[in-house]
Amino acid sequence: MRKLNIGKYRTLITNFILILLAATVCAVGFLPQKISPIFGKGGAKPYYLGSTTANKVSLMFNVYEGENEVNAILDILSETGVKATFFMGGTFAAKHESIVRRIALEGHELGNHGYFHRDHAKLTLTDNLHEIRAAENVVKDIAGVTTRLFAPPSGSFSNVTLSAAEELGYLTVMWSKDTIDWRDTDPKKIYTRATKNAKSGDLILMHPKMVTVSVLKEIIAFYRSVGLTLAPVSENLMG
User: Fold this and answer.
1) Residue 230 pairs with which residues in a beta bridge?
2) What pLDDT is attached to residue 5?
3) CA dist., res. 134 & res. 139, Å (int)
4) What is the pLDDT of residue 239?
5) pTM for this one?
6) Could you tell me whether strands 85-88 and 177-178 are parallel, antiparallel, or unpaired per DSSP bridges?
7) Which end of the chain has the smaller Cβ count within 10 Å, N or C?
8) Is the dihedral of CA 115, 121, 123, 127 positive or negative?
9) Cα(81)–Cα(77) distance, rounded to whole angstroms?
């Protein structure tokens, strides 16, 4: 009886699997490096970019600290006539009701940043729901606004997080440009990260830091100089 060449068949099987994987990649396209292929139960996915054709970009601020800095940012936005999106941490909002009201009264968009700044990727569905709902409730109680955009703290999420957000009627928002202003204090770095390779749909992540305050006018001026309109995140997503 002829012996089977096990090595030959193992090679054929391996090659077949590699070909199948390559075909799959071609079918779905290459995902950008930062974008996670995670989806929620109902097919929800995170948004890393707004409309690529509407010539709009968004300044988005994740807020868990920096009372004075938030007010300074609001002063600049008022002076320049720009509307932005503020993702509010629940604990900050509860302690600084006047800031939440000011954001709403001045026509900016309020978003949800969870209540306790927990790692949502490690939370159960129940805990994800609780964190998002608790932050929503405090903002609604203060400003009369129901938030509908959710930015996971530290950008950490799972398919469970996406499912929880979707269940509560939220879109999960990430970013296309991260200034990393929470870590670095060099204004040139923050400016470059906020403006390099600018394109329609950019979602520019910032925090209430003094370095951000120091370059915010320059960033706004740059985007206007290249013909891009600064708009709240929801408007950017809709095109």
Assistant:
1) 57
2) 52
3) 9
4) 86
5) 0.84
6) unpaired
7) N
8) positive
9) 6
**pLDDT given at position 7:** 52
State the virtual CA torsion across 161, 164, 168, 172 in degrees, nearest 10: 20
Low-confidence ranges of the chain (pLDDT < 50): 1-4, 6, 13-14, 16-36
Which residue has tokens 């997080």? 161
Beta bridge partners of 206: 61
Three-state secondary structure string covering the chain: CCCCCHHHHHHHHHHHHHHHHHHHHHHHCCCCCCCCCCCCCCCCCCECCCCCCCCEEEEEEEECCCHHHHHHHHHHHHHHCCCCEEEECHHHHHHCHHHHHHHHHCCCEEEECCCCCCCHHHCCHHHHHHHHHHHHHHHHHHHCCCCCEECCHHHCCCHHHHHHHHHCCCEEECCCEECCCCCCCCHHHHHHHHHCCCCCCCEEEECCCHHHHHHHHHHHHHHHHCCCEECCHHHHHHC
Residue 199's pLDDT is 98
65 in Cβ contact with 193 (< 8 Å): no
Largest CA distance in the chain: 88
Cα separation, 120 vs 47, in Å, equals: 16
Residue type at position 105: L
